[in-house]
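Worked Example 4.2. Read the sequence first, then its structure tokens.
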Amino acid sequence: MEKPILVFQTDFTYKEGAVCAMYGVVKSVDRSLEIFDGTHEIPHFDTWSASYRLYQTMRFWPKGTIFVSVVDPGVGTSRRACVAKTCDGYYVVTPDNGTLTHLKAYVGIQEVREIDETRNRLKSTEGTSVFHGRDLFGYCAARLASGIITYKEVGPNYPVEEIVMHPIMEPRVSPNRAEGIFEICDPNFGNMWTNIPVDLFLSNGFEYGDMLDMTICHEGRIVHREKALFARSFGYVNKGETVIYTNELMRIAVATCMGNFRETWHVDFGSDWTVVFEKA
């Protein structure tokens, strides 16, 4: 049988040797393991973004792939280190600090186990508690992927209900009106992605080609309002104009054609950034 692939995401960047050290630990456990990068550009300490990027990418990898997500502002404290098994057959090795939010909410977590540090921690570095990406998560993931340990041997399981969650506002969609949150952004282009599924949008009276009233609020205060076209892609509006479109995850999103919506209008994402679309 083929061994599971390892996919890493962190907030480490490549500015120093942290990523290199993690991968060295993996290869020291088993040289045959395949390692791929998800991203190492998660905003620092941003467990919400870490959670979303797992949800965004996981389904496109082979079943059984092991994701290692290390965005860990509580490293070395009492926060749990865990390996979660999703309902659709993937594994996530991560601190239990909100990073499993979107997978638990949208995919489902079948089981979660706390890593037993007495057997699944790198022994040669036991004098430090500040680099669990290398000493605990990367090492444990490598042992699991190589077959040295089974999933049960990761450590004791604990109730899925105890997984730490960020709050997510469910989208509210009714005829000609949809409300949700800006759940994430495309940091390269500044497009803002909502949590509103396009099938709900289309089944409640919205159609491509509609001009929609859009209202964006932060903590209940209106920060931007405009009319914008709902279209299939960016090129249906002129350069610099706003377009409402369907993104690659089949959610409603907002962009500036050949511009940066996030920077232009000073908006951001998270549970306190809401957006309402209305059709006259």
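Now turn to a second chain, presented in exactly the same format:
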Amino acid sequence: MNWTDIEADLKKRLTPKRFRHTMNVIEAAEKLARTFGCDPEQARLAALLHDCAKNLTDGQQLDYAKQHQIKIDRVSQNDPQLLHGPVGAVLAKERYGVTDAAIQNAISCHTTGCQHMSTLDKIIYLADFIEQDRSFPGVETIRGIAETDLDGATIMALTNCICHVAQTGALLHKRTIDARNDLIIKTKNLKLK
């Protein structure tokens, strides 16, 4: 499928609010890609498809994950919407013909983050977090840091997510903690060299 076909299909499948969010994530991802030396077209396509599975119900997320051998851990079993990233990566390939593994991985980990995040992974995670319609305490600070420090902004976004999830009493996925710790260790090691 080409860009126009994918966009038209998503416009039918997503709510108007979710589709507007997707368009905003594309804009943020393209800007981040240009700033941090990532392929803007790759970032745009990953951003376009990052929520392609968001419209699926909890039951559909679980069924799709089982059918495609996506690991369903205890947290995801109890909060199936956390699966919309990994399920979306499979949908990107099967429904939309995206074979680029980097794009699939960025879609897969955009919800929770993951260890060893690539530049593209961080861009999609962060673009989803700071797109222009997002409004929460600290978002402006993260947007400002994102202009010059991708790792620092991603660490702040992960930290913000962890605090928010903990404060609301929702389930916190271990991948988010692992992603944050991994980035902190990497940035500390870079400073020590």
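Notes for the reader: Residues 64 and 87 are 7 Å apart (CA to CA). The two ends are 45 Å apart (CA to CA).
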